[in-house]
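In the design runs reported in the main text, the only information available to the sequence generator was the tokenized backbone. The following block is the verbatim input for one such run; it is reproduced so that readers can re-run the procedure and compare outputs position by position.
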């Protein structure tokens, strides 16, 4: 039985959108904010890691990291359209045996999933109302690092966000975008045992890399 988040997300991330993203990825490679995540993880010089990509979309992060950093990947996504395209690309790259695909809200299935070394959330927290629930679950699963991107708290985004949600409401689409407070996400991850080791800003997105502090 799909969760409510999956139903909402399935309508927000259509097959057309997913196919178009995969075409872009094949033509141009990963998006800028995704490249920040890839560079940040590669800067840790890890090898053979188990990757957990939450809301991985068409799977750009595992397609890339399975080439040099990751041994295996789990891709949990609330969008079935994205997962279909991610699987197609994984098959084309010869990665099928190394990726587990799960269609679910991560917070609903996290207890059934093993821990990973590295957890990624690229443009995911802004699609999910309860950032605490999502990041606490992500933290529980990361043994070494978490890399995530989220919208910056810039004035132009503070103005744009309610407008986007207003149009969603007019369209009677239940999907909403969220500008979660960065300092609260940061405090949560620190409380969960991580330290922030790098941050990079684009116009809309910020990328932060967190590493688990040794006990
Ligand atoms: C804006 S898309 C980003 C996709 C991809 N990471 C990228 O940057 O291109 C947000 C993705 O997060 C997924 N998502 C949001 N909340 C989720 C949750 N709680 N569990 C699993 N997937 C989630 C959506 O299904 C969607 O694929």
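Verbatim output:
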């Amino acid at each position: 039985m799909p969760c409510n988040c999956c139903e909402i997300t399935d309508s927000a991330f259509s097959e057309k959108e997913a196919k178009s993203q995969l075409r872009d990825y094949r033509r141009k490679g990963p998006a800028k904010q995704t490249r920040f995540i890839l560079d940040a993880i590669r800067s840790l010089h890890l090898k053979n890691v188990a990757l957990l990509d939450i809301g991985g979309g068409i799977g750009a992060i595992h397609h890339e990291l399975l080439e040099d950093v990751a041994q295996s990947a789990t891709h949990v996504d609330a969008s079935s359209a994205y997962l279909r395209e991610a699987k197609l690309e994984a098959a084309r790259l010869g990665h099928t045996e190394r990726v587990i695909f799960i269609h679910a809200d991560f917070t609903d299935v996290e207890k059934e999933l093993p821990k990973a070394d590295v957890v990624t959330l690229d443009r995911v927290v802004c699609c999910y109302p309860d950032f605490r629930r999502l990041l606490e679950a992500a933290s529980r699963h990361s043994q070494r690092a978490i890399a995530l991107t989220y919208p910056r708290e810039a004035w132009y985004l503070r103005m744009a966000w309610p407008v986007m949600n207003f149009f969603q409401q007019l369209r009677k689409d239940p999907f909403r975008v969220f500008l979660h407070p960065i300092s609260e996400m940061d405090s949560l991850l620190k409380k969960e045992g991580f330290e922030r080791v790098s941050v990079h800003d684009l116009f809309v997105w910020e990328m932060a890399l967190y590493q688990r502090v040794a006990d």
